[in-house]
Amino acid sequence: MRDKALRYIEALGGRENIQEIDGCITRLRATLVDPSKVDEAKLRAAGMIGRPIRMGNGIQVVVGTHAELIATEINKILRGG
Amino acid sequence: MPILSPFTGRVVPLDEVPDPVFAERMLGEGVAVDPVAGIAVAPLRGRLVVLHSANHAFAVEAENGLKVLVHIGLDTVHLRGEGFERLAQEGDPVEAGQPIVRFDPDRIRAAGYCLLSPVVLPDLPERYRVQLVPAREVIAGQDPLLYVMVENDAW
Fold first, then answer.
1. Confidence (pLDDT) at B123
2. What distance in Å separates residue A58's CA from the closest CA in chain B?
3. Count: domains in chain A
4. For A23, nearest residue in chain B (alpha carbons)
5. How many domains is chain B partitioned into structurally?
6. Measured between alpha carbons, how far is B82 from A59 in angstroms, rounded to an integer?
């Protein structure tokens, strides 16, 4: 799970680019500093399903039914864990 | 294999769900229900493999690996559990028709959320086929919402 979390962080433009991230049941919902730094190929490689949904600085990434676990792990890493 | 409706209400095609993740079938084939009562039940027998901390969505996986995702309303994760109450715990074995979440439709609508509730089949193996039922009224835990069939097999 940690490895997956690290891959998503990188694909979303790195930890400095993620203002906030939460997990719905199947998707990560993030607010980004600069949405142009998102690497969609890396998102797909990390396991993204379909396409990212973008709205302004926000992005939703479908990852499967364990999005909440992945988001929790990402937040641990972002807080320096 | 019948997948029972988790909700009592009217069947609505996924195409009419104003959320691209469901409408574009990113989480697989399925249908939505516009619920008229505030109870969501297990659509099949299995294990409650996921129940979100906000209690707005869950997934049940049958012994044969078939997984059904039930999402109560759209974007309702933002309510952080307000208006939702869990009646089972993640990891529990569940029977088809067993109540999993109680919710307050009026409160959720009043908070500005669409209550169309998608029921989808993520990670469905290729050999499985989904047959939808025509749009109509369904009763939670009694009426099939869709059928899943293995190719060349009635299951």
1. 86
2. 14
3. 1
4. B77
5. 1
6. 24
